[in-house]
Amino acid sequence: MNSSLPAPLWVNTSDALQRMVTDLIAQPRIAVDTEANSLHAYREQVCLIQFSTPEIDYLVDPLELHDLTLLADVFASPRIEKVFHAAEYDLIGLHRDFDFTFANLFDTMLAARILGLKQLGLGNLLAEKFNVEVDKRFQKADWGARPLPPDLIDYARLDTHYLLALRDTLEAELREKKRWQLACEDFQRSAYTNNGLRLTKERWERIEGQQDLSPRGRTILNELCLSREKIAERLNRPLFKVIDDRLLLTLAQLEPGNLADLNLTGLSDRQIERFGRPLLEAIQRGKTAPQVTPTSIQKPGDAILNRLRRLKLWRKKKAEELGVESDVILPRPYLHQLAETNPRTPAELARLLADSPWRLENLGAEILKILGVKAEPG
Asked: Does residue 215 sit in the same domain as residue 363?
């Protein structure tokens, strides 16, 4: 345990949770992080929630506390700023497991990207700004195990202990570069965990190399994916810890017919012993099952693709001028909306960029020019 810091408070009872929430509600800003068990379980879940105020580090145990409803008002409060590092993953987990919604966020990784910093990991930023070293050995730890050893507890608390100070440092740098408003706009956009329906491909479609299979081979691959899913759920293990995608692709290509043939596929003896028969059965089902077809994706027309190409070229050049990544200039949703909608007037562009006044003011004229809109005579 880090002896230079006061011990964090472990929150695993209703009374302790109530006391912590009373403290959090009184704060203008708090630091937040989560730890999940995605590398150790079939269904990922949030296993630890860390909070820090200027005085106290809290570690909340959701595995013992089955009702975290008291935290809903904290996350949804527009008055309390929640400071995360790389918030997206945490927000997805918190919304998925507890149905929390969010308001008033500050994302230190997003701030670092807007500043054009090259090293974006929290460990890198803490080392650069505060000369604090974080032990990366624990990044793949099993956070669902109990009790957590002291080294893991210390690692978890360091993820939030310095976040408030880092937040203030990054705000000062954003203001100095005149990018504070841009950051605030993007922080606000990041608070929405449901950004409309997304077209989700089937598991077999996400395996690299499946496009080289025949339609029947893809059908076999689909059956193998479904079989692996059942095995992983039964064992409560991540898919890749049962059989990785590369081996599933090899099985679909070779179509082994018996246990002896499985030795030629790269499967280990233990995998053959444990999973061989279900995999062979999946291959046989795939040989007669109705053939799968790729998820249909509507291809944009030539005019949209041409505008998209011009916008990407401009975005890349502008990013180089400002020393940031291209998607800081125009995130993907803006990029595609502009290409598809093709605004022809400043008013139309203003409607599209209504939630990003900074981009409208600083980039709007250039965007219209790239889209072929002639500037109005001044």
From this structure: no
